[in-house]
Amino acid sequence: MIQSEAFQALLARPAPRVARAEVPGHGYVVAALAEALEAPVLVVAPGPREAERIARGSAAFLGDEQVALFPAWEALPGEGISPSPEIAARRAEAAHRARRAKGPFILAMPVVAGLQRLVPSLGEHEPLHLRAGQEFAPDRLAEMLVDLGYTRTDLAFHRGEFALRGGILDVFPGTAPRPARLEFIGDEVERVREFAPSSQISTGPVDAVTVYAVRELLPGADVRERAAAAI
After folding, report:
1. How far apart are CA 124 and CA 3, in angstroms?
2. Residue of 148, 203, 139 whose CA lies nearest to 169
3. Based on the number of CB atoms within 10 Å of its own CB, is 8 exposed (0-12), middle (13-18) or buried (19 or more)?
4. How much is the pTM?
5. d(CA 54, CA 47)
6. Contact between 65 and 102 (Cβ < 8 Å)
7. Under 8 Å CB-to-CB from 10, ≥6 apart: which residues?
8. Could you give the angle at which helices 48-62 and 26-37 cross, rounded to 10 degrees?
9. Which one, of 198, 211, 194, 192, lies nearest residue 157 by Cα?
10. b/e 91-119 (16+ beta carbons within 10 angstroms → b)
11. Residues near 203 by Cβ (< 8 Å), separated by ≥ 6?
12. Distance of CA 224 to CAs 33, 119, 124, 169, Å?
């Protein structure tokens, strides 16, 4: 398709370029466009299901690492309801990957997400990558999780929560299917295991855990300075 006369003629036209493709082929066309341009492509779909369909379709041709889905908030900004930890983390992950994308890459989003105002720093902060053998003081790691928007609780039942008990830190990352348990010896992570939130029983070891922020406006030094000045 990329080398076809029709597609090359479309790319050669001066902007804006308008073309039509049947819905089942949208993912293929978007992937072909990213390949032809060798650059990231932003795709705005009518709704969340359409955006997910395009993301899945594009990933079939480019691979999962070259496609990200940027979801919209569950509520409108004027309703005064913050996005859930899962949505916030998925948006942070998608924005983080898009900022660092090189070559063909697809960022798919519903039109509502495209219309919402974004925090300029969204996606700038590196996530926490936790694995066995790392040196981390448990109390310091707890502070870092708080800075990423995580809430300290007695038990980590829901995404966006963590619990610290002696030499064990449980955290439920916003993008993970299950929470993770980090077992410390002093300040060293001895092992990392997943566990079932309902029973709190470990289900097996994992190589690493990636923790994205579950809040879009993070309390960095500049944010704290502006807040102090406003007060």
Report:
1. 36
2. 139
3. exposed
4. 0.87
5. 11
6. no
7. 17, 19
8. 50
9. 198
10. bbbbbbbbeebeebbbbbbbebbeeeeee
11. 178, 193, 194, 195, 196
12. 42, 15, 17, 27
- Residue type, position 146, single letter: V
Burial of 154 from C-beta contacts in 10 A (0-12 / 13-18 / 19+): exposed
Length of the chain: 231
The model's confidence at residue 211, banded by pLDDT at 50, 70 and 90, is very high
Which whole-number Å values give the CA distances from 9 to 17, 18, 37, 39, 223, in the listed order?
10, 12, 14, 19, 48
Strand partners, 171: 162, 180
Sign of the four-CA dihedral 161, 49, 59, 115: negative
Nearest 10 degrees: Cα torsion 100, 105, 110, 114: 50
Find out whether 192 and 132 touch, Cβ atoms under 8 Å.
yes
Helices 5-12 & 26-37 angle (0-180, nearest 10): 60
pLDDT in tens, 77-109: 666 677 899 999 999 999 999 999 999 999 999
